[in-house]
Every structure is written in structure tokens, then in C-alpha cells.
Design brief:
Number of domains: 3
Oligomer: single chain
CATH superfamily of the largest domain: ATPase, nucleotide binding domain
Number of helices: 13
Structural class: alpha/beta
Bound molecules: zinc ion
Radius of gyration: 22 Å
Largest sheet: 5 strands, mixed
Length: about 375
């Protein structure tokens, strides 16, 4: 793969990858370039096979400029791996991050060597089934990842300063990329999801933790890891594990939600059971889910107030509560603004852990392409 392409070549190749087949004339218009410039830039991309000319809509009598250019997404294979405290989720995708295969493996222990062995075995199984060369492997994990190399702090795996990328590179002879899991999910939304048409958008996720990603002017903005984890919602609310009252972690994480419903019902209730109980109008589950959705609404309003970004994607493996309690979500969004901010309804994108793994694959795609 050529890695020394000029920035404008890369921009054009990415434009075609993200927004689909387009003619040289369409690209010139969209990017504010002359048709001659686009023709000149595209020529080496076609010669290298990064872009191909499709004659599917060739119009007789018209020149090359009307031929649509596209990528051959199926010529590429990527693996994405997401690590959680319980499981290792893996997917195989093509260049447009379409998931072609997936597998889940248990986390044997939090011991680094054990996890390394399990990840390597999972990648090798996915590679064998893919039946062709892999262009890159992306691995994501919740917590602080430094320089694409080191898991500096992962509360879920209890890891500190683990150079996981190098360890993996010693075992797997494929380009390897390591990133924070929410960054992976944000990048997947940016290129292949709900952020595609939006130069500015934010992503909030709920589940085991509270995730936040921000894109401004088509660039992922570096943020602290999970800055909304302990965002205050109500000073008289329930406790979080570090002793705050009424923060986002206390209201909206899966553990907090099942603990609150278990306490109210005086029996152990899992997160999935909470969702079912709320659907069946159980008073405890309905109350707890409503309060979690309200807290999430408060967080979305804060994002818009602080960044000016109106397009917000809500996701994460726990996001079903937002769909169960839309009015509580709306009440949270407008608790302090009289309905003025966040004019746009948030996009709620339900997902499972393989979606997180797809985000890991997108980390590799963005590094490798074009
Ligand atoms: Zn807290």
C-alpha cells in the first residue's frame, strides 16, 4: 500500500471510499477543484489500483470525466478486536467496514500473557476463515491508550502501562493498531455511520462505562477518556463507586441500573431483565430507566452547550434505555434550556459488542487506506 500519497490524493480517495462512486466531474465540483486537477490527481490512484473506473453508467459520447470512480471494497480484509472484562469480540470486515465474519472468545484472566494468547488465537482463526491476506488489525480497549502503543490504564482489565501493541506485533505479522474503544466507535460513525454527512458531531455511549467522542470539521478531537463518567446530574442522587452522589456513572452505567433495580425489587436483577421489566411497566425498573435516560439527556445538553455541536449520536451496549424512555431523555435535554439548545433530536443507534469490534477495524482501515 502506498503511504506517501500527497494529502489531496488521500482526500479524494477517502471521499470515494466514504461517500461512494463519483465521477471526476462530481469530485471536482464537490471539492472545489478544477476538473483538470482532479484528473491529474486521480491518474496515479487508478494506476495503483486504489481507485477503479467503473463503466456501469458510461454515457455514449461523453469523456472520462463522467466515468464513476470507486474502490474495490471486497479486495480488502481487516480484523477488529474489542477487549472487555469478560469477552474478546472479533470481526472481519471489507474496506467499507461491512462485517463479513465475527467471533467471541472468553477473557481467560486479566493476566496480560493470557489475554495476548487469546487475542492472537482469535485473530488467527478469523484470518484462516477469511481465506486471504489481512490488510490490518485494529484492537481497542476501554481506558487510556497512549501513542497507539500502550494501554496506560484500563479499569476494565486492571492493566497499567502495558505495551500491548508491541506484544501483539511479536506474534502477528500484520500491521497492528491499538486505540481507545470510544475513539474506534467515533471513527466508525465518522466514515461509515451516522456521522458521515456531518462535519461536526458528538457520540455519547452508555454501557459498562460512559463514553464520549467529538468530531469537529471532520477531525476527531482529542478528549479526555470518558469526561462524562462523573458528570454531575443530581447532588442528592445515588452513589457511584468513587463516592459521588448523582453522577452519570451512578445513574446510567449498566451496573448502576441493575443495582438500583435489584435494590428496589429486593432481588438480583440483570441488565437484560431490567429492560424486560421496564417494557412490562414494572414500577421500579420504569423509574430507574427513566432516571438513567434523564441523566443521558442532561449529558447531551451539556455537550451541545459546551461545543455547539447539535448532531449527537447515542450508542453503546446499554443504549436501549433511551428508546424505552424517550420523554425522560427529552426532559433531561431541556431541563435547563427552555427547549432552545439541541434543536436536533439525538440519533439513537442500538449496537452490540461486535459493533465496538467494527470500530476497532475502522482504526486499521483509516491507517491503511489509501
Ligand atoms: Zn461518580
Amino acid at each position: 500500500m502506498p503511504t506517501d500519497l500527497p494529502p489531496l490524493s488521500r482526500k479524494i480517495a477517502v471521499e470515494v471510499l466514504v461517500h461512494g462512486p463519483q465521477s471526476r466531474a462530481q469530485l471536482a465540483k464537490k471539492m472545489g477543484l478544477s476538473p483538470a486537477t482532479v484528473t491529474r490527481i486521480v491518474k496515479p490512484l487508478v494506476e495503483m489500483g486504489v481507485l477503479v473506473e467503473s463503466d456501469a453508467i458510461r454515457t455514449p459520447g461523453r469523456g472520462r470525466s463522467s466515468l464513476p470512480l470507486d474502490v474495490v471494497a471486497d479486495d480488502y480484509r481487516f480484523v477488529g478486536v474489542k477487549l472487555t472484562a469478560d469477552s474478546i469480540y472479533g470481526v472481519v470486515t471489507d474496506l467499507r467496514a461491512v462485517v463479513l465474519d465475527s467471533e467471541t472468545a472468553p477473557v481467560p484472566s486479566f493476566d496480560v500473557a493470557d489475554v495476548l494468547g487469546a487475542v492472537v488465537a482469535l485473530v488467527e482463526r478469523l484470518r484462516a476463515r477469511a481465506g486471504r491476506a489481512l490488510h490490518g488489525v485494529g484492537v481497542t480497549v476501554g481506558g487510556v491508550v497512549e501513542k497507539g502503543e500502550t494501554v496506560a490504564d484500563s479499569p476494565f482489565l486492571h492493566w497499567h502501562e502495558v505495551s500491548f501493541r508491541s506484544l501483539l506485533a511479536g506474534e502477528i505479522d500484520i500491521p497492528l493498531y491499538l486505540a481507545n474503544d470510544v475513539v474506534g466507535l467515533t471513527r466508525a460513525q465518522q466514515w461509515f455511520g451516522h456521522g458521515r454527512a456531518w462535519p461536526h458531531f458528538a457520540l455519547l455511549t452508555i454501557g459498562a462505562g460512559i463514553g464520549y467522542g467529538l468530531v469537529i470539521n471532520d477531525e476527531v478531537v482529542p478528549t479526555l477518556v470518558s469526561p462524562f463518567s462523573h458528570f454531575p446530574v443530581d447532588p442528592h442522587g445515588p452513589l457511584c463507586p468513587v463516592g459521588h452522589r448523582g453522577c452519570m456513572t451512578a445513574y446510567a452505567t449498566s451496573a448502576a441500573i441493575s443495582a438500583a433495580v435489584s435494590f428496589g425489587r429486593r432481588e438480583e436483577v440483570s441488565y437484560d431483565e431490567v429492560l424486560q421489566l421496564a417494557e412490562d411497566d414494572d414500577p421500579v425498573a420504569t423509574r430507574v430507566v427513566g432516571e438513567a435516560a434523564y441523566a443521558l439527556g442532561r449529558a447531551t445538553a451539556a455537550v451541545t452547550s459546551l461545543t455547539g455541536v447539535e448532531r449527537i449520536v447515542l450508542s453503546g451496549e446499554g443504549i436501549a434505555i433511551a428508546e424505552l424512555a424517550p420523554s425522560a431523555l427529552r426532559a433531561g435535554r431541556h431541563a435547563y434550556d427552555g427547549g432552545r439548545t439541541s434543536a436536533l433530536e439525538p440519533v439513537i443507534r442500538p449496537m452490540d459488542f461486535h459493533e465496538w469490534a467494527r470500530g476497532a477495524a475502522v482504526i486499521a482501515i483509516q491507517e491503511v487506506f489509501p
